[in-house]
User: Which sequence fits this backbone?
């Protein structure tokens, strides 16, 4: 009996259906008399999130249906007063649209025109071709699906960034130190961000290293710093929702588990004329330090 099995995702990736290879691997380990805990350790060593490994082993070994993952606590505005305007750190923010599943809100006037201009002005000289997370290694790569330029501010880097972070924390009831630094993106004509999920995919080997700093992403706030001449909407294909990019407005959505059934697939439609500038704040489960 092999007491210390190892699991390689290479086999899974070459399979027609990746999960088939993983299930087959579990079956083989069971046939060889390997204990559940050893399989769990091998899967987590290969980059699986502990909860995902537990669910998989339960599914294959017990024939159980995957238990619904325990939802995690997420950020979000307090809409209980059903008011069209929310107060956040002394700033009045409009509520244009609110959806329950996923929790999604379109805010108006989250940023003033001066704040949008200040962010663009500070970001412009620091723009570089956008990178996205290379999910298998946790490193970064230029992604052909994302034809834009971007930069990150440090948290609290300047007075405007700090003021916005405090406003966002008050609006979404989530501590400033659980947020990543603001990312600013500029899209030129034709540039787009193809549909994706913002959480880190638990099935990818690189995710473990991403989760070490702050845990999972649990919510996204995309803030529009200008109004493009044409195009550049944020689209939610699972919801049939298109959010029009308007300077100072923002779209917020949360995901209490890193799974497609959160219905948070979203993308940036191609800019048809002019430029599109956004600032994105991603919120984490834990302190992001
Ligand atoms: O620019 C957008 O509309 C957009 C679309 C999808 C931004 C993001 N994702 C993001 O910053 O995560
Ligand atoms: Zn996104």
Assistant:
């Amino acid at each position: 009996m092999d007491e210390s099995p190892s699991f390689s995702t290479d086999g899974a990736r070459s399979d027609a259906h990746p999960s088939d290879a993983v299930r087959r691997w579990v079956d083989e380990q069971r046939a060889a008399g390997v204990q559940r805990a050893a399989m769990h350790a091998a899967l987590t060593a290969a980059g699986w999130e502990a909860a995902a490994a537990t669910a998989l082993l339960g599914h294959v070994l017990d024939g159980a249906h995957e238990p619904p993952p325990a939802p995690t606590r997420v950020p979000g505005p307090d809409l209980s007063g059903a008011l069209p305007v929310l107060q956040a750190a002394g700033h009045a923010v409009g509520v244009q649209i609110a959806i329950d599943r996923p929790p999604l809100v379109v805010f108006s006037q989250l940023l003033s025109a001066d704040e949008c201009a200040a962010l663009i002005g500070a970001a412009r000289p620091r723009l570089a071709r956008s990178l996205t997370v290379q999910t298998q290694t946790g490193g970064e790569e230029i992604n052909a699906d994302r034809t834009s330029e971007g930069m990150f501010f440090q948290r609290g880097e300047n007075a405007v960034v700090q003021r916005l972070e405090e406003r966002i924390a008050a609006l979404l009831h989530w501590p400033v130190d659980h947020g990543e630094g603001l990312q600013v993106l500029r899209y030129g004509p034709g540039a787009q961000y193809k549909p994706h999920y913002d959480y880190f995919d638990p099935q990818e080997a690189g995710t473990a290293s991403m989760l070490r700093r702050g845990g999972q992403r649990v919510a996204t706030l995309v803030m529009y710093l200008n109004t493009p001449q044409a195009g550049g909407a944020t689209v939610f294909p699972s919801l049939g929702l298109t959010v029009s990019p308007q300077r100072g407005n923002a779209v917020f959505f949360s995901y209490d588990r890193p799974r497609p059934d959160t219905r948070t697939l979203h993308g940036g439609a191609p800019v048809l004329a002019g430029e599109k500038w956004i600032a994105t704040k991603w919120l984490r489960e834990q302190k992001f330090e």
